[in-house]
Amino acid sequence: MPVEPEMTDSPRPSESSEAPAPTFDDLQLPPALRRAVAALGFERPSPIQAQAIPSLLDGRDVIGVAQTGTGKTAAFGLPLLAAVDASERSVQALVLAPTRELAMQVADAIGSFASASEGLEVVPVYGGSPYHPQERALSRGAQVVVGTPGRVMDHIRRGSLRLDGIRYAVLDEADEMLRMGFAEDVEEILSHSPATKQTALFSATMPPAIQKVAAEHMNDPVRVTVARQSSTVSSVTQRYAVVPFRHKTGALARVLATSDAQAAIVFVRTRSAAEEVGAELISRGLVAATISGDVPQKERERIVERLRDGSLQVLVATDVAARGLDVDRIGLVVNFDVPGEPEAYVHRIGRTGRAGRSGEALTFVAPHERRKLRAIEKTTRQELEEIQIPSPRDVSRHRLRKLLGEVPARAEAGRLDLALSLVDEFLESSEMDARTLAAVLGAMSVGDSGPQAAEEEEFRGASLKGSDRDRGDRHDRGDRRDRGERPSPGHPEKGYTTYRIGVGHSHGAKPPAIVGTITGEGGLNGKDVGKIDIFGSFSLVQVRGSLSGDQLDRVGRAKIAGRTLRISEDRGPRTSGPRSGAGEGQRSRYDAKRDRRGGKPFHGGRDEGARPYHRGHRHD
């Protein structure tokens, strides 16, 4: 399904009220493009489109300074298509984008604009996908290529892409490309193209490096700037909450539990944090997935499609992995970590409230990070509202109100004879009144099991620890002699089955990734995963009950750190000789079940060279 192009169908508040806002018919687009725009249901261009399209149609080079979500794709995509000859089967236009996701989005949008132009082909090229399908598409005579700098360079070197005949070049999100280290690639790519080409450069900021590129590769460019008030920031309700690091995960779970958004994106700084936060959310019963730079492209595409079709509630992502992601269902963005730069904040919250839609953004701020908050407010020219994180009681109230809202429809549906008879029997044999019974059933149905559970839930907020300052005093961990005798690796608890998977320490396997993969692919709840033993080249995982053949197949084909899990049931110690892998010298133990209850994971001894896994500690 093509991604919806970034357009608006009404004038922005910042536009002058003295003259009527232009329509796309006023922009002198070719008839085929006007038909395509009309078919998409848009009438009025956004400010960046109204300013950039006329200059580009006149053949001028353009520098567009605008934030993400303001309609940049149509601003350069429509004039690009106007400059392309569909009857000529060669590459005539090139668009460079910093990430695979953005390249795919731009290619889809330009392809939707080109739907009324017979014979015009748009081909995306990006890393993480095989070369040969892209080479075949290029050999068929594509006129427009949209790609990431690295893959475009690869195709140039392989001879599958020639740029000596291009008429039009676009650098989209140029500041991000340079920040990611693509400066040399961009320079070399442009050196393979004619000096007479028309060039459009779009960037959220104009640092010296971008100004240098413009000076060297652009001819007397027209500068178009969209004020910050006209960007997506104005359509997003922005709030913050002061949350100590050790309480972030619990706070996040409660925010998501009380949100009415269809889907949410949670931004973290690092790939390891994405895995840990994603696994925590899954263990708490949320339908979540993680996406970062090391996730294979096919898996990334599958995750994004799940987000679009409604089968995924929460996406935990790093900044680079989420570039170019535009999904209508995203109504909430949570900055689990405050972004390092204010501009990154704008890009993050631009994943919601895009082009006419509204959204919410919440940023977790540690007590010492208030200065970063002030920098964000200065950049966005908006003051963020401070809120309090929902309590466990707030979560129960939200869930119960939602449940009560469904009562009339369920009552009207009927077939309550069995429930009524059992309720009558219970009331006759109990001193409880009907009102109390209804309250108890409601509390049980939303997972509220009493005051002690609320206290445990509050404690669980401290379960994700990522630095020495948050690990607590050494005395809190208890003396090793008091922890009891260490059980044999993989010895299952009652009701659990031990499975062996083909990833271990040597492959970079971590408990959060293992929990998230097994629950996500196996269709399990986080509560179904028990103890995990990680050895050098394999791991043992205890799962409640047993996995079906279909579950084993799905989990077995999944990958962690690029390695297939190859899951199989573990048959226990052999009758003679050491257990396979037991002497590999490195083993970590993690008890997912105990960790979810707020208890400390089991820390194995250091005999046999074992290294205990403390949740949140880094293994190097």
From TrEMBL:
It is an enzyme of class 3 (hydrolase). One of its GO terms (molecular function) is hydrolase activity. The keyword ATP-binding applies. Keywords: ATP-binding, Cytoplasm, Helicase, Hydrolase, Nucleotide-binding, Stress response. Its EC number is 3.6.4.13. Residues 1-27, 447-514, 564-620 are annotated as: Disordered. Residues 22-50 form the DEAD-box RNA helicase Q domain. It comes from the Bacteria. Residues 466-494 have a biased composition (Basic and acidic residues). PROSITE patterns: DEAD_ATP_HELICASE (PS00039), HELICASE_ATP_BIND_1 (PS51192), HELICASE_CTER (PS51194), Q_MOTIF (PS51195). Residues 251-396 form the Helicase C-terminal domain. Pfam families: DbpA, DEAD, DeaD_dimer, Helicase_C. Residues 10-27 have a biased composition (Low complexity). Residues 53-224 form the Helicase ATP-binding domain. A motif (Q motif) lies at residues 22-50. Belongs to the DEAD box helicase family. This is RNA helicase.
